[in-house]
Design goal:
Largest sheet: 6 strands, antiparallel
Shape: elongated
Number of strands: 13
Distance between the termini: 54 Å
Radius of gyration: 39 Å
Mean pLDDT: 81
Helix content: 55-70%
């Protein structure tokens, strides 16, 4: 999620980056908590010894300090202190505009440093100044930034409050584009809260303003949010209507790309000029501060010189007085020499007695001090250990709460993925003899399956008699893989509903759309998919196959056949393709079972020697179960996998096998 450092937010900065899964990772907090849990106990014991007493005290103090307030580095803390000092000086000089500027920089420094509460505090302080200045352009940006922080903290209620404040400020500016973007931000929060009617009301107003200003990106964003909102409401017709509008609008938008690139360059040039102007203003402020510090230093030196001169005169007077005292003492000493000689013998006797008494008292005092110090150190060590145990318990409870929240989010994601994947009953309507063996490694899966009956044209209920079936293995597994699976399902819907029926062409278009969606030509993203795809022509009894790395296995007349896919995967750094994947054609002359699968079953470790299952064994297994009914085939796959893994190994990847029979 982008951070607005200038005080002016980009249009729709929130709704371009936010999604249904909520906030970003809680890496920093979990890492700090985990450090306390894994600290070796022998090292703690060693630090509590007398030799390491000082180090122990420092260590305990560091643990008791709030960990999120530790400075990331000295330079950053100095920069924050300097900006706060400048803000205070400008506020004292009644220059509220500059004071707000440096407070805003402090807020961003805390935000980037992982201290959201401090960032919110300084953003709110900046907002109060902006309200006094009636600077609604800056005010709407600040409130948007506070809302973004609360959204990252999963405080959706507070995020909605500050997005609403930002919208109020936008309305006061009268800028229709800003108002439209603010309405879309509020609509996104309402969708996250399942308040779809409120979201649609805000969308209606925002979409109207975006159309009036002819802002292509805002219009496209509104259309996408309309489709999502109606889909979540269960209004499939409305959702499909807006999906069609999105497709048409994106085609128009791509034609304007060259002109948009030129506009971006102009905007960047203006932004650089503004940045240079602000740097010059900051340098002038810094020079003024340095001049003020130099004046203070000169004044201090003058005071020091005057103090030194006074000290010299006083020293001369004291030296004169000491000399007079010395002369008097010498006179008195001459008179007392005789008396001292008489008392010398007596004094030596008294000194002997005193020395013995002092030695005894010193030894006794030393024993008392050692006993007291030992007791105090023992007590302090026990107190520190008790505080450590309390801190560890608090961190443990905090981690448990965080894990519960994470699991709740993942379970919610599982429900979304299940809603996206079609049920097996729909596959049985297309192929009476069919099954799906789907076993994710985690709660959500990076493998997914997809099948559709192809209509004659988009939105038509008339079918062509052709069915698309595919099994896809995304990069990774768990939540990252689930993200790719949702993108893949949506893109396959668009491609097939556009009328494309050739398997190789479908894979080529899917590759290009994935590269565009993930912006792999602009970023270092290398996520991709391995998949196999079949188009079944039920009328002509023909099956066409194309594969991106993954093969197709089919069994006819008790004989097992395997067709290899192309070496290229979908996206994953492949780049845009100008050629189709190779399409292979199979004539159906006898009842034939087709099997599409990911590599999870083949790569699973197990057996007596802990080896992979491998393709050869898997093909033999499919050949042996092809004579069984679909439900028994799925049961056999499940039992073989369970026996292969046993109790010594764990499932290492998502597992997916799809089987269906085509009759002549």
């Amino acid at each position: 999620m982008g951070i607005n450092h200038t005080g002016f937010d980009k249009v729709s900065i929130f709704h371009y980056t936010r999604n249904v899964f909520g906030s970003r990772k809680l890496y920093d907090k979990i890492t700090k908590s985990f450090f306390l849990l894994i600290l070796p106990l022998p090292y703690i014991s060693k630090m509590f010894s007398k030799r390491h007493f000082v180090h122990t005290a420092l260590f305990i103090i560091m643990l008791l300090l709030p960990m999120h307030t530790w400075p990331q580095d000295t330079q950053k803390q100095q920069e924050i202190a300097r900006h706060l000092e400048l803000a205070q000086q400008y506020r004292a000089a009644n220059n509220l505009q500059q004071a707000a500027f440096y407070l805003n920089k402090v807020a961003f420094a805390y935000w980037e440093g992982g201290n959201p509460q401090a960032a919110i505090k300084h953003f709110v302080e900046t907002a109060s100044i902006k309200e006094q200045l009636r600077d609604y352009v800056g005010l709407k940006a600040i409130y948007s930034n506070v809302a973004l922080i609360y959204s990252d903290m999963d405080r959706i209620d507070l995020a909605l409050e500050y997005f609403q404040k930002s919208l109020d400020a936008r309305r006061k500016t009268g800028n229709k584009l800003d108002i439209s973007a603010g309405l879309i931000d509020v609509a996104y929060i309402h969708v996250a809260q399942k308040q779809y009617d409120r979201a649609l009301r805000n969308l209606d107003e925002g979409y109207k303003l975006a159309q009036e200003e002819k802002h292509q990106r805002l219009i496209l964003t509104c259309l996408r949010l309309y489709a999502q909102c109606y889909a979540l409401q269960g209004n499939t017709n409305k959702s499909q209507e807006y999906s069609k509008k999105i497709s048409t609008f994106e085609q128009q938008l791509s034609a304007q790309q060259l002109r948009s690139e030129y506009d971006v360059k102009i905007t960047q040039a203006e932004s650089e000029a503004e940045h240079q102007r602000k740097q010059r203003a900051e340098q002038e402020a810094e020079m003024q501060l340095q001049a003020l510090r130099a004046q203070v230093t000169r004044d201090s030196l003058k005071r020091i010189v005057l103090d030194k001169q006074d000290s010299l005169r006083q020293a001369e007077e004291r030296a004169h007085q000491r000399q007079m005292a010395i002369d008097n003492l010498e006179l008195q000493r001459a008179l007392q020499n005789e008396q001292i000689a008489r008392q010398a013998v007596y004094q030596r006797q008294q000194n002997t007695i005193i020395y013995v008494a002092i030695a005894f008292a010193g030894l006794l005092a030393l024993v008392i001090v050692l006993i007291y110090r030992n007791n105090r150190q023992t007590k302090r060590a026990n107190e520190q250990l008790h505080l450590q145990n309390i801190e560890i318990e608090q961190q443990h409870n905090h981690i448990q709460k965080q894990n519960a929240n994470i699991n709740k989010s993942i379970n919610y994601a599982q429900g979304i993925q299940k809603a996206i994947l079609p049920p097996q009953e729909n596959l049985n309507k297309l192929f009476p003899e069919a099954f799906i063996f789907f076993k994710p490694r985690d709660t959500v899966s990076g493998d997914y399956y997809w099948f559709k009956e192809i209509p004659t044209h988009y939105g038509s209920n008339e079918m062509t008699g052709k069915v698309v079936v595919t099994a896809v293995d995304c990069t990774g597994h768990g939540v990252p893989g689930a993200f790719l699976s949702m993108i893949g399902c949506n893109l396959l819907d668009e491609i097939v509903f556009s009328g494309e029926t050739n398997p190789g062409a479908i894979l080529r278009r899917l590759n290009n759309e994935m590269v565009r969606t993930l912006r792999q030509d602009e970023t270092d993203n290398t996520d991709g998919m391995d998949m196999s795809l079949c188009v079944v022509d039920t009328a002509n009894k023909v099956v066409e196959y194309a594969g991106a790395k993954n093969p197709l296995v089919y069994v006819a007349n008790n004989e097992v056949f395997k067709l290899k896919g192309d070496k290229d995967c979908i996206a994953g750094g492949t780049g845009y393709l100008n050629h189709d994947f190779s399409t292979q054609r199979i004539e159906i002359t006898s009842p034939t079972w087709f099997y599409l699968f990911s590599d999870g079953f083949l790569d699973q470790f197990g057996g007596e020697h802990g080896r992979k299952f491998l393709m050869k064994n898997f093909c033999e297994l499919l050949g042996s179960i092809a004579i069984l009914p679909p439900d028994q085939q799925r049961t056999m796959l499940k039992n073989v996998l369970r026996e292969w893994i046993g109790k010594q190994y764990n499932q290492i990847d998502d597992i997916l096998v799809i089987g269906f029979q085509v009759n002549p």
